[in-house]
Amino acid sequence: MKKIIIVLFLFSCIVITFTTCIKDEFNLDKWNREVKYDASFAVPLAFGDLSYVDIDKFAGGIDNVIINDEGYLSLLYKTHVESFFADSLFKVGVMHNLFKIPALTKNTDVTQNWEIVPDELNGSTFLTGTKFKEMTLKSGNANIRIAKENGELLSISEFSSIHVIFPEIKINGNSALSFIFSNNIEDSQSLAGYTIDFSTSTPGYNKIPVVFHVNYSGTPPTGGVSIDVTFSNIEYSKIIGNFGQKKLMFKKDTIDVKIFKEEEYEINRYYFKDPKIKVDYENTFGVPSYFTFNELKAYTHQDIQLPLLTSTNPSLSIFHPDWHNVNYSTALGVPAKGNITINKENSNLPDIVSQKPRWIKFSATAATNNEQSDLASLNQFITDDSKLKADIEMELPLWGDMSLFKMKDTADFELPEYIFTYDPVKRAELVVKITNGFPAEMLTQVYFLDENNNILDELFVTQAEKVLSAAPVGAGDKVSGTSDKITYITVTNDKIRKWKTVKKIIYEVTANTTDVNHDQPGQLVKIYPENRVKFFIGLDFKVGIEGNIDSIQNAIENDTISNK
Predict the structure, then answer these.
(1) What is the mean pLDDT of residues 507-528?
(2) For a 10 Å CB count at each end of the chain, is N or C smaller?
């Protein structure tokens, strides 16, 4: 439509051209009298081609206008949720134990099992019931301090050596973590690269065997000794075991369905036959995992809550109190993928979308294990970077019908002043040819506005001029041809004068499909990428110039310069 307005300026250019030609041909510089010139012209003004690439500006900032799997168009809205990494959700904290070795004879070996109770670990975020079978460490420190049972530090002179060995804490699968005390009472070592095997002790988890080899040089101290063991600053790369029911994430978000934003568009009704919400997830936890929407609510632009989104298919447990089972990793470094789809087959989503939601708000939760999980299994695993993440998409395929979907486009408009001084345009007739390849009836209008946005005039007067029929629809709800229309509009000099104070125009299109039965095959339509509206606008006009040729020429040239 902007081209139509721009071409009105072509009137000025043509007048300039022909006035200059007259002056050059007849040496008008030597004339000092009034002139009169009349002529008629027919010129093409504008060509247009509106296709699916323009739909995105009508869709209000959506993520994509896509070609869907069936070849027609969909509007797509996206959001993303994900858990924290496992090393933030599952923290080992500090392991600590105080072992008491009774008074013994020389060269005595004592074996004890150091039990790790997750809910008693200082700084741990593991749950009660977590079972450690194996843990590989990225970093950490092991510190051992030896004292008498009463807390008094052991004197070096009272023993020749004390050897503390952790036979199931190994590096590279062979060298066990060990401490030999022969000339001090405290020692520490790095735990980086070590793997702790909890499985060799009964019951096969949460216990680390410790061997104490005591060699006294003299009389053993009364009451024996205490060995204080602390593992701190622990960071793991992998843990195998069972992790109980642990919440992985809780996320609140909003899908902003901007096509229903009525500040920008006036929509009486939009019906989508096959709306979808799809959850595509990737899970690197090697733990049975579950996902659910705690709530899915839709609101209109006036913040009126629509009916809750619910499942109509019992097999889709995502809308029920129980969890929806998601795939989980079965091998280190290999993510498990899957999806959950909410559509017209298993929910009331079409009913909600038909009521023009402005927002769809949701909260999502994911967790490990549930009441039905095998909590005795010790084959679950996590790595430090395990994560569950999900892309949530709302897809609105352009398959359905619409009622009074009004779209507007604005362009600047201002006629040159000399047109009103010398009245060069005596008569003009627009020839508008439009080829509609969209399966929707359209109502068109052009409004002329002043600087205060007051409407001064309308281009189309009769209903017949405004209406553009929908293209015919054939098999598969697909357009099978075009609808063509030619309209002739007379633009008089009086109308041009009426546009003297016009500063802008608004081109408005209202699309509408006829009343249909949503359940009747063949009555709904689909929008394909090849659907387009082509238009051609031509002008048949008459110009006439009368007055002093030098004055006219100066007015035209000055106006042309001022409009550059």
Answers:
(1) 70
(2) C
**What distance in Å separates the CA atoms of residue 162 and residue 149, rounded to the nearest whole number?**
15
- DSSP assignment of 531-549 equals --EEEEEEEEEEEEEEEEH
**Hey, CA dihedral for 516, 519, 521, 524, is it positive or negative?**
positive
Contact 390, 253 (CB under 8 A): no
Q: What is the pLDDT of residue 431?
A: 78
Q: Determine whether domain 73-85+245-397 maps to CATH 2.60.120.
A: yes
> Is residue 23 helix, strand or coil?
helix
Per-residue pLDDT at 442 exceeds 50: yes
Assign 63 to helix, strand or coil. Answer: coil
pLDDT at 147: 77
Measured between alpha carbons, how far is 349 from 238 in angstroms, rounded to an integer?
A: 42
Predicted pLDDT at 562: 40
Q: 531, exposed or middle or buried, with CB in 10 Å at 0-12, 13-18, 19+?
A: buried
According to the per-residue pLDDT averaged within each range, which of 243-247, 300-304, 311-315, 326-330 is highest?
326-330
Q: Where does the pLDDT of residue 544 fall: very low under 50, low under 70, confident under 90, or very high at 90 and above?
A: low
Distance separating alpha carbons of residues 547 and 527, to the nearest angstrom: 56
Domains 39-55+403-563 and 91-242 share a fold: yes
Task: Report d(CA 440, CA 525) in Å as an integer.
Answer: 8
**Cα dist. 456→410, 495, 498, 502, 505 in Å?**
15, 11, 8, 7, 10
Q: What's the whole-number mean pLDDT along residues 344-369?
A: 85
SS3 of 210-262: the string is EEEEEECCCCCCCCCEEEEEEEEEEEEEEEEEECCCCEEEEEEEEEECHHHCC
- Per-residue pLDDT for 249 more than 60? yes
Q: How far apart are CA 135 and CA 147, in angstroms?
A: 29
Residues 296-315 as b/e (b if ≥16 CB within 10 A, e otherwise) read: bbbbeeeeeebeebebeeee
Q: Where are the domains of the chain?
A: 39-55+403-563, 73-85+245-397, 91-242
Whether 40 and 542 have beta carbons less than 8 Å apart is answered as: yes
CATH architecture of 91-242: Sandwich (2.60)
> Stretch 497-519: mean pLDDT, rounded?
74
The backbone region for 350, taken as left when phi is positive above 0, alpha when psi lies in -120 to 50, beta otherwise, is alpha
CATH class assigned to 39-55+403-563: mainly beta
Which residue is listed with tokens 């290999």?
334
Instruction: Grade residue 169 by pLDDT with cuts at 50, 70 and 90.
Output: very high
